[in-house]
Amino acid sequence: MLADAQKKSVAAPSSLVYDTLLYNGMHWRNIGPWRGGRSLAVAGVTDQPNVYYFGATGGGVWKTNDAGQTWLCISDSTFHSSSVGAIAVAPGDPNILYVGMGETEMRSNVSFGDGVYKSVDAGRTWKHIGLEKTYAISTIIVHPTNPDIVYASCMGKIFGTNAERGLYRSKDGGKSWERILYKNDSTGSISVVFDPSNPRTVYASLWQSCRNPWSLNDGGKGSGLYKSVDGGDTWKDISQYPGLPVGLLGKIMLSTTPAQAEIIYACVENENGGIFRSNDRGEHWTRTTDDRNLRKRPWYFSTILADPQNANVIWCLNVQLWKSTNGGTSFVAMPNRHGDLHDIWINPKDPKKMILGDDGGACVSNDGGANYTELNIPTAQFYHVNLDNDFPYHVYGAQQDNSSIRIAGATDENSIGKNDWYPAAGGESGYIVPDPDNTDITFGGAYDGYLTMYNKKTNQSREISVWPEQNPGHGSNERKYRFNWTAPLMFSQHDSKTLYTTSQFVHRSHDKGNSWEIISPDLTRHDPKTMNASGGPITKDNTGAEAYANIFAFAESPIKQGVFWTGSDDGLIYVSKDDGKNWTNVTPKVLGDYALISIIDPGHFDLGTCYVAANRYKADDTKPYLLKTTDYGATWKLITNGIAEGDYTRAIREDPNKKGMLYAGKY
Fold first, then answer.
1. H or E stretch including 88?
2. In whole angstroms, what is the distance from residue 68 CA to residue 31 CA?
């Protein structure tokens, strides 16, 4: 995101000309923090026990040659997309890597991929090898002796239907692909594994699932479990074989083990789901446990892996890391660096050597999971960024599945280190803003409207929420105030004690959060069909990120106090010119229905001017939507010339010092 800076603008002479030598040498620099973000894909090299790879959900592919002590990004120069869904090292040639792009652990804010990349020199160089329309790839497996034979499980579009879903196979190292298992345009492939004793026997699962702007649809008649004994030329549906649960199926993750090739494990989403085991290559099954800890939010987790040397040792990944030593009958929670675990790889020749991928990045263990390397990898995902007016300035943000942060923009030392940042107010998802009168004090948000103030000097924190109750597990129709996961929070640029936040209403405090008033009606579409509990038909999904029909973007004019603009996550734009007494719907027709109004930026030079960044990718429309008005929203102009058709837009900012200079953030 571009910085949500709240600085008063100073107009620069429009005729000023800069010598290009002054800025040709400018370049991006990484200021940290050095802590990891979400990872869905990890892999290692069997005969090179210190070499591992992991994929970040916004940071590409990383490699370590020293078992996780140091990491290097090896994909920046080549990859078009940055969210990695799958990594596989060819067992027959460790120089050959296949990487599948796009996120299949389908949060409401996942990023798309652009197919498969391949390296034949251990990650030094890469080539794109197709499947670009599959959007999200969850699993890649490579034949144990022939690195040209590769399978890719492709979920397809998360926010729409598409015919390119399914399980694909290449016999020529990715030069060409054939789809070998397919159900319909709303069902993708999620897991695929070999029989360790015979790679012509392959097991795969299909998962019918997708999202729209307000809900997750998880599970359906398309979901199922399949087996092939001819390398994928033909398939048999084994979903209803004895012992497997009857009824509607959802996500199914699979594991086999070289320790006993006839054993298959499956983590099955179903009303009567759980961990299932087959001792005869899928002909008969037994549910070993129905423990709910192993299948919380199964659409987000569910990875299962059997130890390569002991078939009775099983690892299950969920909010916690779980291990069984008795074939899945019981599990115990295991230590690890971070919660919300997504992927695991264990060295087949030495099971004590392993790597985990979770919401904190990737960590390596050399002792079977007793100890792990640090998560000090700069792949953190931030929802919003803010600045203060200190010199040197500080940067503020909230990291996904971690704390908020205040970090120095520059220091007198050789680097910006841990002494230069600390957790500020708020939590993982909200806006973080400094007190305009004292930057030792920060105000921050988290999910469900939770707001706090933190004083670094006194180390005191207190809650300043508009409403004291939170609503996990409830739909938007049951919430008194519908706060977005990343609800706006900002100070007035005209009064340092006035603070704003938004639910479906605009809330204002004149005393820095000690008390609040509502200064607007409901400024959302609040369509009842969009406000029910999210999820189903098998598993609900109401952690807070799914709260819908709320104000996602808010801004006050930097020119005149009391001129407000709002944008909702269900597609409406409002303006008030009289301090919130009256509000006018000025939504442009070009946005259609249910656009997400991502950023609103009122003009710094002309009072009636406002810029809007919106997107409709959750409605399967990836066109960019950047708009400008010069008459308080009476008319709008689309200003996307130069932005590619499929690059949907998230942010727009006007340079506060140079009229006409705009900055945009896109996918």
1. strand 84-89
2. 21
- DSSP string for residues in 452-512: EEEETTTTEEEE--SSS---TT--GGG-SS---TT--EEE-SS-TT-EEEESSSEEEESST
> What number of other Cβ atoms are within 10 A of residue 493's Cβ?
18
Query: What's the pLDDT at 29?
Result: 87
DSSP letter at 530 equals: G
Contact criterion met (CB below 8 Å) for 492 and 435: no
Name all contacts of 258-264 with Cβ < 8 Å and 24+ positions apart.
Answer: 258/196, 258/197, 258/308, 258/309, 258/348, 259/306, 259/307, 259/308, 259/309, 259/310, 259/311, 260/311, 261/195, 261/196, 261/197, 261/198, 263/306, 263/311, 264/193, 264/203
Give the tens place of pLDDT for each residue, 627-651: 999 999 999 999 999 999 999 999 9
Work out whether the CA dihedral 327, 329, 330, 331 comes out positive or negative: positive
Q: For 102-148, how does the pLDDT look when each residue is reduced to its tens digit (9 = 90+)?
A: 999 988 888 999 999 999 999 999 999 999 999 999 999 999 999 99
Q: Which residues, given as ranges, of the chain have pLDDT below 70? A: 1-18
pLDDT of residue 472: 84
Phi then psi for 43, rounded to 5 degrees?
Answer: -160, 160
Residue 650's H or E segment, with its range, is strand 649-654
pTM to 2 decimals? 0.94
Instruction: Give the start-end residues of each E strand in 401-437.
Output: 404-408, 421-422, 432-435
**Distance, CA of 273 to CA of 331 (rounded, Å):** 16
Using a 10 angstrom Cβ sphere, with 0-12 exposed, 13-18 middle and 19 or more buried, the burial of residue 655 is: middle
- pLDDT tens across 221-238, in order? 999 999 999 999 999 999
The reported pLDDT for the residue numbered 16 is 56
Cβ–Cβ under 8 Å, residues 78 and 117 = yes
Q: 350 is written with which tokens?
A: 């030495």
Phi/psi of residue 54, nearest 5 degrees: -145, 155
Distances (CA, A) of 393 to 387, 455, 622: 7, 18, 35
Q: Above pLDDT 70, what percent of the chain?
A: 97
Query: Of 296, 340, 291, 333, nearest to 315 (Cα)?
Result: 333
**Distance (Å, rounded) from C-alpha 542 to C-alpha 297?**
10
